[in-house]
Each structure stands twice: as structure tokens, then as C-alpha cells.
Amino acid sequence: MRCVYKNAAEFIKKRIDIRPQVGLILGSGLGDVVENIDDPVFIDYKEIPGFPKTTVQGHKGRFVVGFCKGKKVIAAQGRFHYYEGYDMEQVVLPVRTMKVLGVELLIITNSAGGVNPDFSPGDLMVIKDHINVTGINPLRGKNMDDLGPRFPDMTYAYDPHLRCLIMNTAEEMGLKVREGVYAMMPGPSYETPAEIRMLQKLGADAVGMSTVPEVIAAVHAGLKVVGVSCITNMAAGILDKPLTHEEVIETAGRAAHNFAKLLLGFIEKL
Description:
By secondary structure, the protein is α/β, with parallel strands linked by helices. The chain is built from 7 helices and 9 strands. Helix content is 30%, strand content 25%. Strands 5-8-7-6-9 form a 5-stranded mixed barrel, surrounded by 4 helices. It starts with a helix and ends with a helix.
């Protein structure tokens, strides 16, 4: 597994003519941002040696490489989740592949449940920090010295300058964007009301089942990171109704326009 990302990058290099600088990981229902990539080259994960397949609705399972607002980008349209049965090295495989391809900045997105009662479905939240509630870390095991240090610092995992830039971009566009802490639970079951009360006490504003491993791997590899959550539902117990993945996809679809507008404006300013 420890050389899979290098083999994957070599395979992709043979299919593209550019060296991408900006990477995007697009969460459930948020993959339509790739429609704004010019001269796109599509590479299905199933074609790439050693890559798993996505199994979740709303994840197409492919890379899209091209130009976006004058920047060379590679977008992961769909990701791998721990709850699908993949190990952490597989979950972070796209990030490490992007690093070898030349990516220096990672924009990571997700669909999340609102833990902060002041949030509403459809809100966008810039991630300022995260809480790993899974107890699992993708850096466990022998360190990959070619990528980064044994003990990477996570103080500024979500780059303060980039957070400021994307918040300012939202303000200029007249978009209401929140800022908060993202908590990762392992899934695939949604959280119980008691677990949500626990997360509130821990200081979380949103909860999901992804993102944290990829951010840890990205920081370890020296990438700058900015993260955005689309609040697709209120977490268990906040509203008196059950949670469904269909609601997640539907709300992400409604928020897709503002989401794409924000990301494109941000990429243009880079």
C-alpha cells in the first residue's frame, strides 16, 4: 500500500499534460463543481492501479484534471470512507497521490450534520479546526519519511490565511458563511442524540464521517488546507425527525449553486 500512491500518480501523469497545483476533494452531492473545470480529463478510480471504488450515492468516483479560473487543478469527484470497509491508507490515497502529482494546496469539502443549533440546512461552514472522535489516525504505523515527519504539528491544520481569504470571498459575494469546528464520527450509522449532546459539549459545530483523515494526511505531506462543510441536515435530537442520506443529497443539491460560487471565487483569488 505504501507505494500505491506513487504508482497511481505515475499512471495519472501519463494521462495529463499539466502539473496540478490545487487539489479538491468533493463530498456527497457536491461534485458538480467540476462542471467549471476547462479542458477536463476524466480518470475513473477503477482505471487507476491499486485504487478502491466508491460505493456511496453522490460520489461518482473519478479524478477530473484541468483548468479552473486560470489554476491547474485536480478534483476528486468522490472519496473513500472508513465506514465502507477501507483502511485509513486507502481513505487518504487520493491526497497522497495529489501530493506526488505536485499539488500544494488542498480544498476539502463535505456534507455534514449541524451540531450547532444556530445553524440551518443549506448553510456553508468554513472549518477552523476538527475533533477526531474515531480514535483512528492514518499516520499509524511506520512513518512515510518521503512524505512528512513522524509527528506533524496540527495547530494550524486549516491554514489561517486561506480561511481568512475564503471568508472574505464569501463576504464580497454576499454569501452568508459560518465558521466552526468539524467532528468526525466513524459511521455509517448516524449519531444518537446523546452523542450529539456530547459533541456540543466538546465544542463541535458540525459532524460527519470523513475529512479528518485526509486533512491529517495532507498536513503530514506539507499541503496547505482549507475546508468547507455544507450543512445538509440538523444532527440527531436537534429536530424531532429521523435522518436520511436522501436528505443529505437533496440539501447539498439545493446548496450547490452557492457552494460552487464560493469555491470558484476563492480559487480565482489564489
